[in-house]
Amino acid sequence: MLITVAIAFVLLNGLGVWQLYRLHWKEGLIADLARTESLAPVPVDSLLSPNSETEFGKRDCAPRPLARKACVASERQNKDWRSVTLPSCTISPDRLVNMHSEMDGTPGYRVLTSCPLASGPNLLIDLGFAVDKVTLSAPQTIAPVGRLRPADKVGAFTPVNIPASGEWYSRSVTEIGKVWSQPLRGDYFLVLDVAASKLAVPGIQQGPVTAPLPNRHFEYALTWFGLAWVMIGIFVAFVRQKQTQAQM
């Protein structure tokens, strides 16, 4: 029993330490988001080269694994969440995807389209949130302004897209690109600033331009550390009780 308690104590404290590492990581993300908010928009092609989604670290980073990892992270830091501008872009009625989503507890859709870059694949554009599915009766031209957001990672519980029936649950550039018959970048997409881009599509409202970043890792760390020491207290009480019973 002592061995089991010792192993459990180490594991619980290990989880607490892991949460402290997560806390440090999350604080870095939050600080980076704050940093990008103070930067003026730059042309998107100054940040995204045609092949940059497959070239992180290939040209200027050292070959050593740890140095390379830090260098790649630095490259991404210069792009993630940056405010950018795109050349004038025409939104075509046949190139809209309404992806199931919610905002502030209200179910609805994220409205997606794409815009060309100077070269390379098109960039997926998140136009905003709509309660009902959005359609266009005619093309609309905008000058996109927004923030570059790293591509989503599809969660294990995210429903599968059904392109044939127009049911979308994730921003899968592979599937969307096939439907639109055009290649799309797989590393970033743009979250549109509706007002700055002068988008005038009925029903579309501004959605969050950044991902929510809750930071409760310190609480979680205290929980794991607390459980470890509560377990020790219970074990000590149990041992003393057995000793008392043995002496009677």
Protein architecture, described:
- This protein has 248 residues and is α+β, with helices and mostly antiparallel strands.
- The protein has two domains: 69 residues; 152 residues, no CATH class.
- It has four helices and nine strands; from the N terminus they run αβαβββββββαβα.
- The strands form two sheets. It has a seven-stranded mixed sheet with strand order 1-2-8-9-6-5-4. Strands 3-7 form a two-stranded antiparallel sheet.
- A hairpin with a 2-residue loop joins β4 and β5.
- It is elongated and about 90 Å long.
- The relative contact order is 0.17.
Top keywords for this entry?
248 residues; alpha+beta; 2 domains; seven-stranded mixed sheet; two-stranded antiparallel sheet; 4 helices; 21% strand
Helix tally equals: 4
> Structural class, please?
alpha+beta
Whole-Å distance between the termini? 23 Å
Hey, roughly how much beta strand do the residues contain? 15-25%
N-to-C series of helices and strands: HEHEEEEEEEHEH
Cα shape = elongated
For the biggest β-sheet, the strand order reads 1-2-8-9-6-5-4
Helix content: 25-40%
Q: What's the overall average pLDDT, rounded?
A: 85
Whole-number tally of structural domains: 2
Largest sheet: 7 strands, mixed
The gyration radius over C-alpha positions equals: 25 Å
The residue ranges in which pLDDT falls below 50 over 5 or more consecutive positions are: 66-74
DSSP strand tally? 9
